[in-house]
Design brief:
mainly alpha; 0% strand; single chain
Length: 525
């Protein structure tokens, strides 16, 4: 009962605070609804980016994976810092100069309208089929485990999960549909810092308990129990071999942090370049700290439970929460977890609505639509996508390598082809629109065939790297026969102040050095 009261109190606080901050905002204009009125600060951007990225697919999926595989999966997190440096120094300044609301807008400027529409549709499908259902389902696992919803309502565990999926889906939709990006970003900021504090508390309390009051002694005990779990260099046959850092992983990270609408939309809503760069680089710092929240607890759980949960690894994090947290704090942490689910869910809904409204509806259905009607189309899109995601969510259960690994495999279908043409658009002037469209189709088909139909015996991240090279070859080949018809130059629309942050380069160098040091220090086990 106490758990439920603290849960409701914290959730209500976030909702009321978000409403209070938004009460005077203009949410009927295109920029007001989709970009938070281009008024976001660095702290809000970093909090929102972190929470858009870190949801229960990380808390549950990555802790489940580290419980089984150890620290080798840290590569997903710490290499993000390198990609965020690239976003802050190179990509985002160009987006802000062009006054972009969506990433597909860049593709129309660089290639043509068909490329923009194709990518917009790819993104819509990837949001609805992969990310939204997995976020909802992992959130439901955590909340069902903490509150025993199936027992409360006297139903089976499957029905309890289904009820939780519906509840979380409806609540997340309300934020995204009625408040736009600013509501999402404000609620994310509170929940983001709540997640950092609450997430850090889990391993800290566990290590204090294991070390009889001394967390460092606790960490030594956990390390001595299974030193192999702390190694960050993955073997060739592991869930994440070390070699993938140099093939497909860096392409994926560049796409995710520099070109992914759901993430980069926060930076596009910055009040100026300084705040955008602060937000991106602060996020880089947070991503280096985040393994303490989403990897270390899984390894601590191995100390407590051994391999008894190996066949259901995605249940290990909720078990650990119930074991180490005092009853009074379980409700608050559950509310933070709920916030993490809502954040990613409503962020993706907002991004999907933005892309559909601006890249599809305004371009192909009604070019002269007013801002207020466009916002209504965005709200309707969010509603339809939310219903679809709720219906699909239970279908992602029982992923063989865990839910996080499934999410990454599915993401590769769309991420790598789009990353290929985005990078070509920026760095290869001779790539034509025909070449870009051909690479999209070839890359997507190649990955689906290799990963899901013929099951090629190569790690899927290596397949990303091979696919990237194949896409480049296709683009060069097709562009030779169908050359570029117009030279592309980035035009500065002078929408925002473009003076860079004075500490951007210093902080970027520091993030790169810290990332390398992590591999040197933890790669010697």
């Amino acid at each position: 009962m106490y758990t439920a009261i603290t849960f409701i109190a914290f959730t209500a606080f976030v909702a009321i605070y978000s409403w209070y901050k938004l009460r005077k905002e203009n949410l009927t204009s295109q920029d007001g609804y989709f970009l938070g009125g281009r008024s976001l600060t660095g702290v809000v951007i970093a909090g929102s980016m972190l929470l858009t990225n870190i949801s229960t697919e990380h808390l549950i999926g990555m802790n489940g994976s580290s419980y089984k595989n150890g620290f080798i999966i840290i590569a997903w997190e710490v290499t993000s810092a390198l990609a965020l440096v690239a976003a802050a120094i190179y990509f985002v300044p160009k987006y802000l100069k062009m006054g972009l609301t969506t990433i597909p807008q860049f593709l129309e400027e660089r290639f043509d309208g068909t490329t923009r529409t194709l990518v917009a549709l790819f993104l819509m499908i990837s949001f609805v089929v992969t990310l939204l259902p997995i976020v909802l389902y992992t959130g439901a696992i955590n909340l069902e485990s903490i509150f025993n919803i199936s027992e409360v309502f006297g139903v089976t565990k499957e029905k309890g999960l289904w009820l939780t999926v519906v509840g979380v889906g409806l609540l997340g939709s309300i934020y995204a549909i009625f408040g736009g990006l600013k509501a999402v970003a404000i609620s994310d900021t509170i929940n983001g810092y709540g997640l950092l504090i609450g997430g850090l508390a889990i391993p800290l309390i566990a290590l204090v308990s294991i070390g009889d009051g001394n967390p460092l002694s606790g960490l030594v005990k956990v390390y001595e129990h299974a030193p192999e779990k702390f190694n960050v260099i993955g073997a060739k046959d592991s869930v994440l071999p070390f070699e993938v850092l140099f093939t497909g992983l860096i392409i994926n990270q560049l796409y995710f942090w520099s070109m992914n609408q759901t993430i980069i939309q926060r930076a596009l809503g910055a009040k100026n370049l300084v705040e955008a760069q602060k937000g991106l680089l602060f996020t880089g710092v947070l991503k280096i700290l985040v393994p303490i929240i989403i990897i270390l607890p899984g390894v601590i759980a191995f100390y407590y439970y051994g391999d008894s949960f190996y066949d259901k690894q995605d249940m290990i994090y909720p078990e650990l929460i119930k074991k180490v947290l005092p009853v009074g704090l379980v409700g608050i942490f559950a509310a933070i977890v709920m916030g993490a689910v809502l954040s990613t869910f409503n962020s993706v809904l907002n991004s999907a609505a933005t892309i559909f409204s601006i890249d599809v509806y305004k371009r192909h259905i009604n070019k002269n639509i007013s801002d207020s009607k466009l916002v209504k189309i965005g709200k309707l899109t969010s509603t339809i996508l939310a219903i679809f995601a709720i219906l699909v969510a239970p279908m992602v259960a029982n992923a063989p390598d865990g839910l996080y690994q499934l999410l990454q495999q599915l993401n590769g279908i769309f991420f790598i082809p789009i990353a290929s043409i985005m990078l070509a658009g920026f760095f290869l002037k001779k790539i034509s629109a025909t070449g870009a469209k051909a690479a999209l189709v070839v890359g997507l088909s190649f990955y689906i065939l290799c990963t899901f139909i013929f099951k090629v015996d190569i790690h899927f991240v290596h397949i990303w790297g091979i696919e990237f090279l194949l896409n480049l070859a296709v683009m060069f080949g097709i562009s030779y026969f169908f050359p570029v018809s117009k030279e592309f130059k980035i035009k500065d629309l002078h929408i925002l102040e473009m003076k860079p942050w004075k500490y951007a380069k210093t902080m970027s160098i520091a993030l790169c050095i810290i990332t390398i040091l992590i591999y040197i220090l933890l790669g010697t086990n």
